[in-house]
Amino acid sequence: MFRIGQSTDIHQLVEGRKLIIGGVDIPHTKGLLGHSDADVLTHAIAESILGALALGDLGKHFPDTDPAYKDMDSIWMLGKVHDMMTEKGYRINNLDALVMIERPKMAPHIEAMRKNIANALHCDLEVVSIKATRGEKMGFVGREEGVQAQCVTLLTSI
Length: 158
What we know:
This protein is an alpha+beta fold. It is built from five helices and seven strands; from the N terminus they run ββββαααβαβαβ. The strands form two sheets. A five-stranded mixed β-sheet has the order 4-1-7-5-6. A two-stranded antiparallel ribbon has the order 2-3. β5, α4 (110-121) and β6 (128-133) form a beta-alpha-beta unit. α1 (40-52) packs parallel to α3 (74-87).
């Protein structure tokens, strides 16, 4: 049996925060604003899995009103989502994710992101696809006001 989920996540870029995407701390003058580490890519992936399982969104499981999740490592949260997926009898068939960010370039970091995601989800690297694109100076991405990530995930029963 197959189940498919999709999600989009958006976080504002601000000074004074780390830029963590896909579990990689990327050197930059700005970082993502959020209650946790605000890892936009990991959030989109986790929510696409939760969606495929009809388990709601990240806020339901890791509310931003709970101080326990303040500055939480999103890769840890993705591991917890993996546990929920396994308990429901599913595994990752494949996932396809996209990061929309004007700067910095994601290409040098994508392989490390893929490895972090595959490790958290206990799946083969070959089933984790991560791509990036720019806003071409248009919209909030192009003006460097925020970052958006999207993911589609296909689950298969164990």
